[in-house]
Structure to design on (184 residues):
């Protein structure tokens, strides 16, 4: 009986630990669908690492570094405009490749983007909106492509008297770990 309970526990832990990351069926490269937000967890800012394929604590003690992090764009009057992304290193990181009003068109472009030339990058991905396709130059000079699925930005007043800006980005991504500008 104890063996069955142990097997159940192992299977349950495997299911809980699974995320939406996998290997891109067309290119064989690491890929996934992720959501990152501006929410501070245990007084720590969270970013995303393409090499890890998951969220990471920015300025953590390990060698895993964040490649991107979401931020909330606030007007000079204090209103929420939307979401943008930055890198935790100060250098041009983002290149907008495509923007569409149609999710199908963005998905087609994202999946057909197999190669790109190295060109000018921006310090910020701004503004970030659904149906955009971006190239990201990671902190260690590797590349990822990402398609923005959804963004969310609002002023959260649920936990106290002072509203806190909240931003969230959901994206699909494919990571090229060898530094090539090809996703084939």
């Amino acid at each position: 009986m104890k063996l069955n309970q142990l097997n159940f526990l192992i299977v349950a832990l495997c299911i809980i630990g699974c995320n939406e990351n996998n290997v891109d069926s067309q290119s064989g490269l690491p890929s996934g669908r992720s959501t990152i937000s501006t929410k501070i967890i245990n007084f720590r800012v969270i970013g995303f690492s393409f090499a890890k394929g998951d969220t990471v604590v920015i300025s953590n003690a390990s060698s895993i570094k964040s490649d991107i992090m979401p931020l909330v764009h606030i007007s000079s009057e204090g209103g929420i405009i939307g979401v943008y992304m930055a890198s935790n290193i100060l250098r041009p990181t983002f290149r907008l490749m495509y923007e569409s009003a149609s999710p199908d068109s963005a998905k087609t472009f994202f999946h057909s983007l197999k190669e790109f030339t190295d060109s000018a990058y921006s310090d910020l991905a701004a503004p970030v909106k659904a149906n955009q396709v971006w190239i990201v130059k990671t902190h260690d000079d590797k590349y990822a492509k990402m398609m923005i699925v959804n963004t969310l930005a609002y002023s959260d007043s649920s936990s106290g008297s002072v509203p806190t800006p909240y931003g969230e980005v959901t994206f699909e991504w494919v990571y090229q770990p060898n530094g090539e500008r090809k996703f084939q």
In short: The radius of gyration is 18 Å.
